[in-house]
Amino acid sequence: MTGQPLLSVSDALARVLAGAGPVGSEAVDYAAALGRTLVEPLAARRTQPPFRSSAMDGYAVRAANAQTGAELRVIGESSAGHVFEQPLNSGEAVRIFTGGALPEGADAILIQENAKRDADRVRVLTGVTEGQFVRAEGLDFRSGDVLVEPGQRLSPRMVGLAAATGNVQVHVARKPCVAVLSTGDELVPPGAEPRRGQITASNNSALCALVEAAGGEATDFGIAADDLDTIRAACRRARDEGFDVLVTTGGASVGDHDLIRPALAAEGMTLDFWRIAMRPGRPMMFGTLGGMRTLGLPGNPVSAHVCAWLFLVPLVRALLGRREIHHRLERAQLSIALPANDWREDYVRGRLTFDSHGVPVASPAQKQDSSMLRVLADSNCLIVRAANEGPQPAGSVCRVLRLTDFD
Ligand SMILES: Nc1nc2c(c(=O)[nH]1)N[C@H]1C(S)=C(S)[C@@H](COP(=O)(O)OP(=O)(O)OC[C@H]3O[C@@H](n4cnc5c(N)ncnc54)[C@H](O)[C@@H]3O)O[C@H]1N2
Ligand code: MOO
């Protein structure tokens, strides 16, 4: 450990999020708005239903003269899309189908199961009450009603709502632009054949996917060699091209080839912090270069991903103007005992399942090495252990963060 205490995860997150707000907005066709974040309220431009309509197939009647045993004269038909324009008088009924407009004068629906038809007469087998099976005009919403508040991510259900309300265009947040740069002489791009001592770079792929899933727009800046000028040039390019965030991986630690901080410092970065009291991810760095936030993540794929999950995802949400920025902590039962934790907050990879009573159970993966992508991909949660937490027996309550939450 270092001489001075390192920042806690929550303090570091507060610094990363400081001053982060929406980066802009644009109007998009509602059909292309899935997953986008609303920046203006979605208000109804129409009333729905726009007219009183029937919820069932049967007869539009006046409840007052449609009591059990009554006989009514059928004067016409109203079906969805085909309005019967004549008003309905006492002793009359109109054949109606689901979605059909109620004729003037009708106030209830006699369902056909409770009616006996004979030529132009219909007998009421079971009397009706006023309003029965009638959908009032504006039952769902009225023109001008605010239906979705800003700051929410548009779900498939909301896309349908936007369509129904006559909102051909919706105003959504511009996607924050995130550049993702890997550093390391040992890295080759996916698909290339690694030579001895080389490995395939996976961080760009995982982090770009994570950014996109969180609602941002990722640009893969590829791999920079462990060379100060090369890294400087890539950082400069990200700043000059107006990226909102630059994420680097690798070169964050204390080795002779760990050049991220010096490269960014040489470009004029204001360093906010370097190193935090967490595992994995201790060597994480955060700073600003002009208007661009810069997250320097460790190279180990698991460390990079856990840091991105904890810091980059909330940052993207903040830059989208989302109302809910933070991950949700849940409680679960530990499947096995865990030894005492040290001074670093620990994010233990594991699986969250539910027992036969629906109780959530968190099972830590057996191996926690921060290079192990397979364990990470197999995990669906992080078990969060406080700094200096004592030993935890099997069955005790622990805190978990799901890795699948993209609401
Ligand atoms: N003497 C010390 N050594 C290390 C410390 C320390 O405090 N003192 N910290 C360790 C911790 S914790 C971590 S985490 C790593 C992070 O180091 P770097 O950020 O400098 O990462 P690299 O050394 O560049 O790479 C680490 C590891 O990850 C592989 N890697 C890098 N980039 C990618 C990529 N894009 N895709 C897949 N894999 C990647 C790389 O080959 C290395 O194996 O430092 C410890 N050391
Ligand atoms: O922090 Mo490192 O991320 O322990 O592997």
Quickly give the CATH architecture of the largest domain: 3-Layer(aba) Sandwich
Strand content: 25-35%
The strand count comes to 26
Considering DSSP H and I runs of 4 or more, what fraction of the residues is helical? 10-25%
Which ligands, by name, code or SMILES, are bound?
A: ligand LQZAQKY5, molybdate ion
CATH class of the largest domain: Alpha Beta
Category by helix and strand content: alpha/beta
Catalytic activity: adenylyl-molybdopterin + molybdate = Mo-molybdopterin + AMP + H(+)
Function: Catalyzes the insertion of molybdate into adenylated molybdopterin with the concomitant release of AMP.
Enzyme class: transferase
Family: Belongs to the MoeA family.
Keywords:
19% helix, 407 residues, alpha/beta, 26 strands, single chain, binds ligand LQZAQKY5, Molybdenum Cofactor Biosythetic Enzyme, Chain A, binds molybdate ion
Characterize this entry briefly:
The protein contains 7 helices and 26 strands.
Could you characterize what this model shows?
With 407 residues, the protein is α/β, with parallel strands linked by helices. The chain folds into four domains: 9-23 and 174-320, Molybdenum Cofactor Biosythetic Enzyme, Chain A; 29-46 and 143-173, Molybdopterin biosynthesis moea protein, domain 2 (Alpha-Beta Complex), CATH 3.90.105; 53-135, Molybdopterin biosynthesis moea protein, domain 3 (Molybdopterin biosynthesis moeA protein, domain 3); 330-402, MoeA, C-terminal, domain IV (Beta-clip, Beta Barrel), CATH 2.40.340. The protein has seven helices and 26 strands. Strands 7-4-6-5-9-8 form a six-stranded mixed β-sheet, with no helix packed on it. The chain has a six-stranded mixed β-sheet with strand order 16-13-17-21-20-18, with helices on both faces. A hairpin with a 2-residue loop joins strand 20 (285-289) and strand 21 (292-297). The longest helix is centred in the C-terminal third of the chain and has 20 residues, at 301-320. The chain starts with 8 loop residues before the first helix and ends in a 5-residue tail after the last strand. The structure holds ligand LQZAQKY5 and molybdate ion. The site of molybdate ion has 8 residues, from loops.
